[in-house]
Amino acid sequence: TYDAEAANGALAAVMSVNVAFAVDARLGQLGRELRDDDLEPFTRVLYDGGRAMAGTTAIGALQQLERTGREVAPFFERYDLLLTPTMSVRVP
After folding, report:
1. CA 50 → CA 36, 54, 80, 87, distances in Å?
2. Res 21: pLDDT
3. Quick check: helix, strand or coil at residue 56?
4. Which of 29, 64, 66, 72 has its Cβ near the most Cβ atoms within 10 Å?
């Protein structure tokens, strides 16, 4: 077993930092600042969260994903495939 909540939080953090990095890199290529209409609302939430995240938080998230990988790995010693629901949380 693994801590799905911790894994989900870590994945969200890593995704946020990645979005911020990618958007900033593209803006650098374009030579301009971010405009209000450049990103969809959810992408903007990820971008803002990634830009505001401390480096230590991002490293902690990467470490959590590594822990999750080690916790899940033994499953694949016995099975070749893991089927999961589309969403990792219950739908209200």
Report:
1. 17, 9, 34, 22
2. 98
3. helix
4. 64
